[in-house]
Amino acid sequence: MHMSPPRRAVELTANALGLHLDLRVINLMAGDHLKPEYLKLYVPHTSYAANSVYDVRKTYWYIGIGHIIYKTMDPRHTIPLLDDNGTIIPESHAIMIYLASKYGKDDSLYPKDLAKQSKVNAALFFELGVLFARMSSITYPIFLEGCREIPPVKAEGVRKAYQLLEDTLVDDYVAESSLTIGEFSCISSVSSVMGFIPIDRAKFPRIHG
């Protein structure tokens, strides 16, 4: 299991859609995403079959050698980054919406009905603004600053996020009555942060499962 929740969320979406991803890995700790090469995309002189799942390539870092054409990628240095045959999509939530909308056999993962879609969007925003944000407040100091202890106030913030998610779940789903990209997004962060702040089964039985 990859340590990056955004990457896992995209991979869960791709797997549900039956898509093949050609992964390119970069080293965050070495600052590969900040290098000039990350801002450019190698476009080979190769044609691809229309609508082929192999057109979908998630590019973390890809730079060509030889006769090349460069296009601007993402000046924000976002990871993950999707390259779908020349269409560049940064940010995991945008990627999931794009993949589900373009390659889904139906709209179950990301409903077209605006009322249903709003619930999925709410789940995506909750994961980004609450779950992932509170997880990052713990993991960044550990991985990047060498901290060895989690401040109690941050641990309590994660538990409050667990409670919000617990209260949101209906029949084990966070958005609709079936699996959507909202679940993929929330699962990706919860499965990471629970390694630092365990989920109390008695307090959060729905999340714990």
TrEMBL record:
GO terms for biological process: glutathione metabolic process. Keywords: Transferase. InterPro entries: Glutathione-S-Trfase_C-like (IPR010987), Glutathione-S-Trfase_C_sf (IPR036282), Glutathione_S-Trfase_N (IPR004045), Thioredoxin-like_sf (IPR036249). Residues 1-107 form the GST N-terminal domain. It is an enzyme of class 2 (transferase). The keyword Repressor does not apply. It catalyses: RX + glutathione = an S-substituted glutathione + a halide anion + H(+). Residues 113-209 form the GST C-terminal domain. The keyword Zinc does not apply. GO terms for molecular function: glutathione transferase activity. Homodimer. It comes from the Eukaryota. Belongs to the GST superfamily. Theta family. Its EC number is 2.5.1.18. This is glutathione transferase.
